[in-house]
Design a protein that fits this description.
The chain is an alpha+beta fold. The chain has two domains: about 1-75; about 80-113, no CATH class. The chain has helices spanning about 5-25, 40-75, 95-105; strands spanning about 80-85, 90-95. Strands 1-2 form a two-stranded antiparallel ribbon. Residues about 85-90 and about 95-113 have low confidence and may be disordered.
């Protein structure tokens, strides 16, 4: 069997395994002795573990980057201004007074602030 290489490809493969198990009313295909490259239970478990590890890594990286950005803003004197655009809240970070002023204009429905 040609095992997918990326985590995303492996997740798609596992969805296929689970779909077949459900439609066929069966358990995962397993062999004795176990074959980690072919046994569905091992592939699904390994993929879920890898996905969980990647999710934790990305969350930690995101928290670190948010912290670093906030620290950088404090040191460099950035200003954060919330604007509303097409129903989506956005944050504009700028030291440029023109950007801050135009953001305030948007916030006041086009009227100068």
């Amino acid at each position: 069997m040609n095992e997918p290489k990326t985590l995303n490809e492996r997740i798609i493969q596992c969805r296929g395994f689970i779909g077949k198990m459900c439609s066929e009313g069966r358990c995962p295909k397993m062999s004795i002795p176990a074959n980690p490259d072919r046994d569905e239970d091992i592939i699904i478990t390994r993929t879920l573990n890898d996905a969980q590890d990647e999710l934790i890594r990305l969350r930690n990286e995101n928290e670190y980057l948010k912290f670093e950005l906030e620290e950088s803003k404090k040191k460099e004197g950035y200003h954060s201004v919330q604007i509303y655009q097409e129903g989506v809240d956005n944050i504009v970070d700028s030291q440029d007074p023109k950007i801050v002023a135009s953001t305030k204009t948007v916030m006041n429905n086009g009227d100068p602030a």
